[in-house]
Amino acid sequence: FVKCFRALCCKGPPPARPEYDLVCIGLTGSGKTSLLSKLCSESPDNVVSTTGFSIKAVPFQNAILNIKELGGADNIRKYWSRYYQGSQGVIFVLDSASSEDDLETARNELHSALQHPQLCTLPFLILANHQDKPAARSVQEVKKYFELEPLARGKRWILQPCSLDDMEALKDSFSQLINLLEEKDHEAVRM
């Protein structure tokens, strides 16, 4: 009886979930703060644009993501690279319903990030946000416009549509990113 009791009740704490440090970038208004707030079960209603950066620990069933969100304003973007060190993955949020000019700027910023020495080997989750807006471009349009196939060949990246209305799809996107992070972890162990 005692052995049985110990086996059932005294196993100790559950194994710790792995933690990953991620950087989240994208232009102002792309929806970074709102998406992260919603993932943390906070109300996105009172969200203000991030100036500088903020950090959120986003718990998932199989991992904890420590996400450093960097503000997307013109005067802040030039400092993004100072915050890349130590990142294990990248979340790039773009407004799929934005103007041509903003989309061009987002494309240039994504290209810079994909080629940055501290990020180029990391998994990327690219979220085409605001899919609920009438002017939203499809994932195929975004993929083509951002030239992801040739640019990101050989890299690990996921391009997913999202909106605040579809949290299941957003959580699924993050699960896919966690899978890429776990794969990268296992590769590091094998080396």
In short:
Helix content is 37%, strand content 20%.
Plain-language structure description:
It is a single chain. The chain is an alpha/beta fold and 191 residues long. It has seven helices and six strands. Strands 2-3-1-4-5-6 form a six-stranded mixed sheet, with helices on both faces. Helix 4 links the parallel strand 4 and strand 5. The longest helix has 24 residues, at 167-190. The chain is globular, with a radius of gyration of 18 Å. Residues 1-7 have low confidence and may be disordered.
Low-confidence stretches: 1-7
- Sheet with the most strands: spatial strand order: 2-3-1-4-5-6
Rg, alpha carbons: 18 Å
* Mass-distribution shape: globular
Helix content: 25-40%
End-to-end Cα distance, whole Å, is 45 Å
Assembly state:
single chain
By DSSP, the count of extended strands is 6
Question: Which structural class matches the secondary elements?
Answer: alpha/beta
Keywords: GTP-binding, Magnesium, Metal-binding, Nucleotide-binding
Protein name: ADP-ribosylation factor-like protein 15
GO molecular function: GTP binding; GTPase activity; metal ion binding
InterPro entries: ARL15, P-loop_NTPase, Small_GTPase_ARF/SAR
Secondary structure elements and their pairing?
Blueprint: H1 2-9, E1 19-25, H2 32-39, E2 53-59, E3 64-70, H3 74-77, E4 89-95, H4 100-115, E5 124-129, H5 139-145, H6 148-151, E6 157-161, H7 167-190
